[in-house]
Amino acid sequence: MAPSLFLSFSVILTWTSWTCATPRQKEKVERSDIFSGDEWDSLYKEAEKLIGTSKTVLNDSIRQELVMEILNDEYGKRSAEPLPLAAKRNGNTAYITWSSSSTILDAMNCKKKFTLWPEHHCEKFKVEETDNGPQVTKAIIRKLATDKLITVKAKVFIACGGPILTPQLLFNSGFVPTKPNRDPRTQIPLEDDEKGIPPPPDTLEHLKLPALVRYMPRLFVVYQLTVC
User: Where are the annotated segments for Disordered (predicted)?
Assistant: First the structure.
């Protein structure tokens, strides 16, 4: 995920964002003393190897040269260095691959257990009738590098997009929230039931999910797509 296009989540004022910047903490400033200096150095080296930290990935960037020149002119006694980034150049091209969880799994030699597809986006599930009733039988995947759509077939699909992205995927797959009179689990009457929107009349029963996005905190969960 590039710094110019990243996802940020806020849950009750707790922010997390991944911009691929991986600097080491300064001793006696931010760094904890739970490990010795040698232990910290060893752990940092191992982590940087797994995540693919590099200080040279933007060496050809005019912006980086300009920023470092300004910093060195302003703070002459403290030499500016390139920001360590978890990223790598794609051969001799201008394209950069930004590290993610797939980078770590790939470095841990997990290929024998499963296949990793970084830089792919799951757009929707395909629900079809089977001998066991309606089931998700396919996933439509977009390869971001070429914008090509790929159809993946499997016996079981697991969506792990969290409380925000997973409902989006399900809704885009044709699943819709319904307007029940009572909570489907506790049977407690829903206070906002009258404000709900019923699903389209032609919606198939297996596509109705009563709790879809219904229990998501409205004020404290923020999904933000930032383009800098």
Answer: 176-201
